[in-house]
């Protein structure tokens, strides 16, 4: 598994009646692929996985794998409260043809270090799919510590880390401890260029859902050592990237996708579409970003 590159955590598209809108979903996927993304991640926070039925997750995974047809890896996120459910999805992902897994610590129960490590090891030992651990203590309240990652080194298929601690120095800390044992991918849009400069090899991105060309261009320029060119685009991008670090990131990013012609605002309850002052404020950011969009 090559974890290097831009991996969109894609949104799930719905019709007004709440059913899956696969046509619009694939329209967005086409734009992602044409822009040069390096993989697709399904079932994350942006994908509204918590409000999808088991059947819908299976449909979304199977149809995406079939549609992408090996052009890039398709990664399924596992965010479950029970180990048996995580094991089910690891096996189902393999059956449906997914290329790898992204895994959060156990949901809803605040597991201690021993429990988190056991959870990850149990799932890793059950599959040969490569795994990326999603370390996001800010939103999900469980920190996967360096000591815990040291215990996980024995699981060869745990290969990558989505680094979302909000601590840029953690990239250096991890590299100092583990070298290249783990591939580090930035999981916070507003820190992406900084973490790429410090040694992260990938970007699990949110605003890429609406602005894939700009996201991929920043990644490529950093990797080519063209820092000034990347910085200029990144500075333009930052007000938009900040939409990714809000509890309503799903609504914000779906509104951006809509303005870019590659998505819709439809969300699943309890989420509601934006109204009033909040909507006006977010639309202003999006419209200004589009108006000042850099020529690539």
From TrEMBL:
Catalytic residues in the record: 134, 162
Keyword Methyltransferase: no
Binding site for pyruvate: 204
EC top class, as a word: lyase
A Pfam family this chain is assigned to: DHDPS
Keywords: Lyase
EC number, as in UniProt: 4.3.3.7
InterPro entries per record: Aldolase_TIM, DapA-like
Molecular-function GO term, any one: 4-hydroxy-tetrahydrodipicolinate synthase activity
Family: Belongs to the DapA family.
Protein name: 4-hydroxy-tetrahydrodipicolinate synthase
């Amino acid at each position: 598994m090559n974890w290097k590159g831009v991996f969109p955590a894609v949104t799930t598209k719905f019709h007004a009646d709440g059913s899956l809108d696969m046509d619009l979903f694939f329209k967005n996927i086409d734009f992602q692929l044409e822009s040069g993304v390096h993989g697709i991640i399904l079932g994350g926070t942006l994908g509204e996985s918590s409000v999808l039925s088991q059947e819908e997750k299976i449909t979304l995974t199977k149809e995406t794998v079939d549609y992408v047809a090996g052009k890039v890896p398709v990664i399924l996120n596992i965010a479950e409260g029970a180990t048996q459910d995580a094991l089910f999805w690891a096996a189902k992902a393999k059956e449906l043809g997914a290329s790898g897994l992204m895994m959060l610590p156990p949901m809803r129960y605040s597991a201690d270090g021993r429990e988190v490590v056991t959870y990850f090891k149990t799932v890793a030992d059950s599959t040969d799919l490569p795994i990326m651990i999603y370390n996001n203590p800010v939103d999900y309240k469980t920190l996967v510590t360096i000591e815990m990652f040291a215990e996980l080194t024995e699981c060869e298929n745990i290969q990558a880390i989505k680094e979302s601690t909000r601590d840029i120095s953690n990239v250096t800390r991890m590299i100092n401890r583990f070298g290249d044992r783990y591939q580090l991918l930035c999981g916070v849009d507003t820190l992406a260029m900084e973490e790429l400069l410090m040694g992260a090899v990938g970007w699990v991105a949110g605003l890429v859902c609406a602005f894939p060309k700009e996201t991929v261009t920043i990644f490529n320029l950093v990797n080519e050592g063209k820092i000034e060119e990347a910085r200029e685009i990144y500075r333009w991008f930052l007000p938009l990237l900040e939409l990714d670090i809000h509890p309503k990131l799903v609504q914000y990013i779906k509104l951006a996708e809509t303005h870019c012609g590659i998505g819709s605002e439809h969300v699943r309850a309890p989420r509601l579409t934006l109204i009033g002052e909040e909507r006006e404020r977010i639309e202003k950011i999006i419209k200004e970003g589009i108006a000042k969009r850099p020529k690539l």
